[in-house]
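Page 47, continued from p. 46.
Same chain as before, 153 aa.
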Amino acid sequence: MTIELKLNGTTHHVDAEPGTPLLWVIRDDLKMTGTKFGCGVAACGACTVHVDGEPVRSCQTYIEDVEGSEITTIEGLSSDAAKAVQTAWAELDVVQCGYCQSGQIMSAVGLLTENKSPSVAEIDDYMNGNACRCATYQRIRAAIQRASELMEA
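Result:
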């Protein structure tokens, strides 16, 4: 079946079977590889994208469920929150191996879009479910706090 997707502001027509995860369409059909496959069961967050502004796990989001939605991947981030997060990530040297970082950033942008000044507890609660095998959680938390400061400036 042909599905019309709006990805990072561009409309695409994709042939995909019903039940195909959005992740595979993004990576295999549209060749955007910033969104990562981690676990396939929505438990790690590596595949996080925004659908209509909300962070979702693309490995468990079916292509037919997002037709007509605005989908944003790490390659398409451009909001003020996204710029602040990207700046803070670089300033605080958050990345270690980097595999989970696109999902971490997508979730952090989602948080700061909803709540421009989250507490440590709110950060930890919102980011719960984004796994980092290198355990950079303290740097991720600090970068979200720094991004919040940058957004206030």
